[in-house]
Amino acid sequence: AGMVQVSPGIPVTQQNEGADSIDNFTARTQEIANDICRQSKKIDTLVESLPGVSVTESEQEREFIELSKENDEATRELEEANKRARALLDNISDTLRTIADNSGNK
User: Fold this and answer.
1) pLDDT range class, residue 23, cuts 50, 70, 90
2) What is the DSSP track for 18-64?
3) Which domain of life is it from (predicted)?
4) What's the predicted TM-score (pTM) here?
5) Do residues 60 and 52 touch, judged by C-beta distance below 8 A?
């Protein structure tokens, strides 16, 4: 490792044995700068993907209303499916009861 004068006002008096060479220091500095840029881009991408960041309040309101309608429709469909499932279960129970009653009459 060489001795590098950081500033003209600060004399180089002692070599730091643990210090990187100029090439290693430059390479590590470049690597850190690249990492910072990559992380910054990731953060920007995440922020842009947040709902409502790039839309106006009225667009957010329209989207909320649309999502609310979709939710209401999905809820109705679920309730209908539950009714059909209950009716089918009742039908199966009645059929099993009839089979059980008839098997006892033999």
Assistant:
1) confident
2) TSPPHHHHHHHHHHHHHHHHHHHHHHHHHHHHSTTSSS-HHHHHHHH
3) Eukaryota
4) 0.41
5) yes
- Residue 11 is given by DSSP the state -
Taking CA atoms, 71 is separated from 65, 79, 99, in Å, by: 10, 12, 42
Rg (CA), the chain: 36
Pull the structure tokens for residue 31.
């690597």
End-to-end CA distance of the chain: 102
Binned at pLDDT 50, 70 and 90, residue 106 comes out as: low
Encode pLDDT of 40-89 as tens digits. Answer: 999 988 887 777 666 788 888 898 999 999 999 999 999 999 999 999 99
H/E element, 87: helix 57-104
